[in-house]
Design goal:
629 residues; alpha+beta
Length: 629
């Protein structure tokens, strides 16, 4: 062993000397993400790799190379097997298509083939949906991330020194949600798009330095892939169009450059179009149309973009969950004269990009950690971020160190919240301000967190109506009031006035008598128990329960009891107050003893002890807090 180390020592010394700080970032990023992937081993699970949108991006590969049928008719041979593996969308005449375009399949392809070969050699299933394929797919994201960082590094070193370039690379991975989408949901398109944008950035610079056939072909190829994966990202053409413009004179020079090389511009366009041709043939063959909109009812609402929520909301606000990008935006105004060639193209492209992204019907893009479509342009935003770091470094040690301290905290925050999202402590689509701060900094949560969420009605959202869906709660932290006016959508249960609690007996709603509003609960001889609601309580909780009955002389009781009626039971039928219309108030204070289990299920309801007709209205549950010890 010692002799082997002696022989390897010169080689290791040579390698270590060759590794600059920014190259070390590449190495350590590869090591850290590999460790995270092996620690999670998602490839061992059926629905942790190819799921959600990845189903549509990936399915082209097994269809073409395993089942050899891009019409997807093979699904009919085993619909049960393919039901969660391929989208089964059909045109009106029954021809199948996939919701997602095939661009990402091209980037998966080399790794899919590696997985396919290994599956054959190792005796695994060669269906395209076994662990070797999933393993390769996960690490394909790491490959493309490193490729993107490699080109980003090359760009940064043109304008910034080694340590600023290295720090920027660290921040763009570990202080943003790019980390999550290179590990826990690696095959999603964002790490791949990040890489393509970084390569596009490099060849944009190279084309302007040396307009040539090679640089034109590469620029067109990368741009075509960007569009093929996500057409909206084609807005990056604005970056190319305005690159280098810093003044009216430079704008005129840019027009002269384009006029001087019209054939190269045409070559870029033709190359980009050629990349999209396979998709056009697929649509033509499978739908009958060269251009086909595969998203159905989903679309953009350009007249009502959700820009403010998209940037700042607790649901998925980009700058809330990825605050490091606040500094990137600020850096647009600190770029030096050398790097100022990026300011105008970014200032022009960003508003258009943000406007389009947040005009999408589901502006938070479903289940995601942070605002995932913004990840695609992080390579571009790395430039002003580096510019801000450079600006601070030139303004003295105090400002530089303060900024580094903030960056370090933001990186820790992102890593911690990535963990929280993995554990479900940041909800995938229903986060609210209350839920965010309830779980902030915590390693665990409890059932109360789920009561603080803010889900939406997707059926109304898809037609452009933002309608929140009140969360049904199972703990009364403050109060629950049922006036028997509102029914749930099935007309079977009553809803509290805030729509957070349900009460039994919706079919007993009556307008014959009422104390408030226009309805009450009508109980007859066959209805002994009604208005029931289940809540979870904690030991030492105190509650005050009230309800009104009519007539005042009716033999109806208000009850609160544990689920089995053994651990706790209390009822009251004595009237404490009457009103001028003959309604009588029942009131009961409940003190739970310290042996009551936390999160123990209790029920509140009314009990008609007689056979006479009785009406109930305004049932109120008030939490008085914990008993003072």
């Amino acid at each position: 062993m010692n002799s082997l180390l002696t022989k390897l020592l010169p080689l290791l010394t040579f390698v270590f000397k060759r590794l600059t700080l920014s190259k070390w970032v590449l190495v350590l990023t590869a090591v850290i993400i590999t460790y995270i992937n092996f620690n999670n081993h998602l490839w061992k699970f059926k629905h942790k790799v190819v799921f959600q949108d990845v189903v549509g991006y990936y399915c082209y590969l097994p269809a073409a190379f395993i089942y050899k049928d891009l019409s997807f008719s093979f699904i009919d041979k085993d619909p049960e097997f393919f039901k969660d593996k391929m989208f089964n969308s059909k045109t009106e005449d029954g021809r199948r298509f996939q919701k997602m375009t095939m661009g990402l399949a091209f980037m998966y392809f080399p790794f899919f083939m590696l997985g396919h070969v290994y599956a054959h050699l190792a005796g695994n299933e060669t269906t395209g949906y076994s662990p070797p394929y999933f393993f390769s797919l996960i690490f394909s994201a790491l490959f493309w991330l490193l490729a993107g960082l490699y080109y980003l590094r090359k760009v940064l070193l043109l304008y910034f020194n080694e340590w600023i370039s290295a720090l920027t690379m660290v921040l763009v991975v570990f202080a943003t949600n790019l980390l999550y989408y290179t590990t826990l949901e690696a095959p999603m398109p964002h790490a791949y798009n990040f890489a393509l944008f970084a390569v596009f950035l490099w060849f944009t610079i190279q084309w302007h330095l040396k307009p040539s056939v090679r640089n034109s072909l590469m620029t067109g190829l990368v741009f075509g892939m960007i569009v093929l994966i996500r057409p909206v990202n084609g807005l990056v053409v604005l970056f190319f169009a305005f690159y280098g413009v810093v003044s009216i004179k430079s704008f005129n020079n840019k027009l002269l450059l384009i006029a001087k090389h019209p054939y190269l511009i045409l070559l870029i366009a033709i190359t980009a179009f050629t990349v999209t041709v396979p998709q056009l043939f697929f649509w033509k063959f499978n739908t009958g149309d060269w251009f086909f909109y595969s998203y159905g009812k989903e679309g953009f609402f350009f007249e009502n973009p959700q820009i403010i929520p998209g940037l700042f909301s607790y649901r998925k606000g980009w700058l809330l969950y990825t605050p490091i990008m606040v500094f990137a935006l600020a850096g647009l105004f600190t770029l030096s004269s050398k790097s100022s060639v990026f300011r105008v193209p970014l200032l022009i492209m960003l508003p258009f990009f943000i406007y389009v992204v947040y005009s999408w019907w589901c502006w938070w893009y479903g289940g995601s950690f942070g605002s995932r479509p913004m990840i695609d342009i992080y390579a571009l935003l790395s430039l002003p971020l580096a510019g801000l770091i450079s600006f601070a470094a030139c303004r003295g040690r105090w400002l530089r160190n303060a900024l580094l301290g903030v960056f370090f905290l933001l990186m820790l925050l992102n890593i911690f919240q990535t963990y929280q999202y993995k554990k479900g402590m940041i909800h995938f689509d229903a986060m609210s301000q209350e839920a965010y701060w309830f779980n902030f900094g915590r390693l665990y949560t409890d059932s109360y967190y789920f009561e603080l969420l803010d889900p939406v009605d997707y059926d109304s959202l898809i037609v452009g109506v933002h309608h929140p869906v009140p969360v049904l709660k199972n703990m009364v932290r403050k109060e629950a009031f049922c006036d028997f006016e509102k029914l749930d959508k099935n007309q079977k249960k009553f809803l509290s006035t805030d729509e957070h609690y349900v009460f039994d007996g919706g079919s007993l709603q009556s307008s014959d008598q009422f104390r408030s509003g226009m309805f009450s609960l009508k109980m007859e001889k066959e209805n002994k128990f009604s208005a029931g609601t289940e809540i979870y309580v904690q030991k030492n909780d105190r509650y005050r329960l009230t309800a009104w009955r009519y007539p005042a002389t009716a033999n109806l009781a208000l009850v609160m009891a544990s689920d089995n009626h053994v651990n706790f039971y209390k009822s009251v039928s004595i009237v404490t107050e009457t009103d001028a219309n003959g309604w009588a108030k029942l009131e009961m204070d409940v003190q739970l003893h310290d042996t009551t289990k936390t999160n123990y299920r209790f029920k509140v309801y009314v009990w008609n002890r007689d056979t006479t007709e009785v009406f109930v209205d305004d049932l109120f549950i008030l939490n008085l807090g914990q008993e003072n010890k």
